[in-house]
Amino acid sequence: MKTPLILKVATRDQTGRSASRRLRKVNRIPAILYGKHSDPEKLSVEAAEFTRLLKQVAGRALLVELDREGKAEKALSFLQEIQRDPMTDRFLHVDLHEVKPEEKFEIRVPVRVTGESFGVKNQSGVLEIATHALRVRCLAKDLPEAIEVDVTPLNVGQTIKVGELKPVAGVVFLDDKGQPVVACVEPVAEIIQEVPVAEAAVEGAEAVPVAGDAAAAAAGAAPAGDAKAAPAGDAKAAPAGDKKGAAPAAGAKPGAPVAGAKPGAPAAGAKPAAPAAGARPAAPAGGAKPWASSKK
Questions:
Q1: Which tens digit of pLDDT belongs to each residue from 257-273?
Q2: Which of 10, 28, 35, 282 shows the smallest number of beta carbons within 10 Å?
Q3: Please, is 33 exposed, middle or buried when counting C-beta atoms within 10 Å of its C-beta (0-12, 13-18, 19+)?
Q4: Tens digits of per-residue pLDDT, 81-99?
Q5: Fold category of 106-185 in CATH
């Protein structure tokens, strides 16, 4: 048996949530020690001391020797459970399982993969660890730090199960023999999905008419053969001095008067347009007399 780690602990009398909160405020972690041959014992441990212990354990299956204040006898145990705050990751509680050197006990031992798989190296496979810890039964002196699994001969599509593990002296595997531990699988093919991209309209390009619109436009247009061109000799040019223009087309709005042209006289019987609401009357022209009021 390897030399166990040492952890200093103190006995606590108070229990409950309030007592546990008071312990955490002074940087102590509530703990409990239980076993087959003794009653549960309530303990507390320094947070800094426990953090150093975890760094030494480093994920291995190791025994811890408890140095209790006021007791000469040291208790041999292992870490059964560690509770943490999910938000702050602060230690909340520690469970310690007491064991006897001369008795076998059950413990979970981590799996450690060694070697390089043939399937990963030469067949582009992917190594998957299905079981990260195994349940074993052994004496304290036979406790292994980890269960080593050699994956060197593992090809793609092959699996190492509990029943195929290399035997460890003094250790009995308690998990099902058919339970997979490590497997080498084919890589998942990458699925590439083509997304149709709409072609942007070219700036400045003319729109192509739809078949139906083109037919309608062709039907409404006058045929070229029916159009009669006016003979060149019959065309009479308007004299340059003629001030009268052609009559406007039906529905067309009259154009703005030419600069300098005098407005035409109103038709007989036509009334002048009323001024707009709030509009001021125009000032009389120079020399013109204002209208005389009808009232005297």
A1: 545 555 555 555 555 55
A2: 282
A3: buried
A4: 999 999 999 999 999 999 9
A5: RNA Polymerase Alpha Subunit; Chain A, domain 2 (2.170.120)
